[in-house]
Amino acid sequence: MLDADKASRALGIELTELSEGRAVMTMAVSDLMVNGHDIAHGGYVFLLADTAFACACNSHGPVTVAAGAEVSFVASARLGDVLVATAEERTRYGRNGIYDVTVRRAGADGAVIAEFRGRSRTIEKNGEAG
């Protein structure tokens, strides 16, 4: 799945750890990701968290997609920061799952940048959730 994800590859997102129900990914904040306030645009932080979520919920095998997600931005990231997103499964029930992703700044301070909660749904072979 990740090999075919052109958006994540184009942003330099890298998978550093993958196990069942868990994924860790990194992304460096580039000059193209900084908004008018000179901080990382929230959409890029969300994209990193969403990609980690996707890898974690697809780690079980069946094709799984997002049914919904929300993010809370806690602190700002800046140009040059390396962000680390750690996605962890909280529960799976039927074809549904709940995953939490913490995005931190790499390095000594390890500041939390965002908290993300994703809800997953395993889809049928024809691509329909239901």
UniProtKB/TrEMBL annotation:
<dbReference type="InterPro" id="IPR011973">
    <property type="entry name" value="PaaD"/>
</dbReference>
<feature type="domain" description="Thioesterase">
    <location>
        <begin position="39"/>
        <end position="106"/>
    </location>
</feature>
<dbReference type="GO" id="GO:0016787">
    <property type="term" value="F:hydrolase activity"/>
</dbReference>
<dbReference type="InterPro" id="IPR003736">
    <property type="entry name" value="PAAI_dom"/>
</dbReference>
<dbReference type="Pfam" id="PF03061">
    <property type="entry name" value="4HBT"/>
</dbReference>
<dbReference type="InterPro" id="IPR029069">
    <property type="entry name" value="HotDog_dom_sf"/>
</dbReference>
<dbReference type="InterPro" id="IPR052723">
    <property type="entry name" value="Acyl-CoA_thioesterase_PaaI"/>
</dbReference>
<keyword id="KW-0378">Hydrolase</keyword>
<dbReference type="InterPro" id="IPR006683">
    <property type="entry name" value="Thioestr_dom"/>
</dbReference>
<protein>
    <submittedName>
        <fullName>Hydroxyphenylacetyl-CoA thioesterase PaaI</fullName>
        <ecNumber>3.1.2.-</ecNumber>
    </submittedName>
</protein>
